[in-house]
Amino acid sequence: MTKRQRAKYLDEQQEDLLALPTESKKRKLTQEEVALRRAEVLRKREQQRKKRQDDIHRETIDRLLKKKPPTRKSKKATAAAAATAAAATEDDEQRYISNGSGSTLSLPPDMSNHTRYRYPPPIATCSAPGCSQLRKYRHSRTQQPVCSLEHYRLLDAAVQAK
Ligand SMILES: [Zn+2]
């Protein structure tokens, strides 16, 4: 450290030391005051907590006991939900609706009658004469089912001849 640096360093040290007493200039609360203030904060916090708990408690009881008579708006909502449910049944759709007026599950009147529940159509057999193999391909032009490339060509030749 040069002489100048040393002087500057000491100056800063001095300033730090001088700065400290200002902290203690703040009015010191007595231990009793601190305790009182802390107790007050705790009391208020506890009060708020209790109030919140009471509110939740009361709201829950209200919700469980008092079923509000349906307002015009909720009547409308119920009607809308019923209409949607009816439409869903007409569509033979399974539909689950959940809204403010409750939840409904709509099923088609006869589920077995619905195309969605039918077995897939049987696989066609080859259209080459005398062949009963199951279809693997379809002729590109006639859409006739064929079992193999061999029979595809056979069918193709017949088409070409026409
Ligand atoms: Zn065939």
TrEMBL record:
Residues 77-88 have a biased composition (Low complexity). Residues 33-111 form the INO80 complex subunit B-like conserved region domain. Residues 96-106 have a biased composition (Polar residues). PANTHER family: INO80 COMPLEX SUBUNIT B (PTHR21561:SF12). Residues 52-64 have a biased composition (Basic and acidic residues). GO terms for cellular component: Ino80 complex. It comes from Thamnocephalis sphaerospora. Residues 38-118 are annotated as: Disordered. Residues 65-76 have a biased composition (Basic residues). This is INO80 complex subunit B-like conserved region domain-containing protein. SMART domains: PAPA-1. One of its GO terms (biological process) is chromatin remodeling.
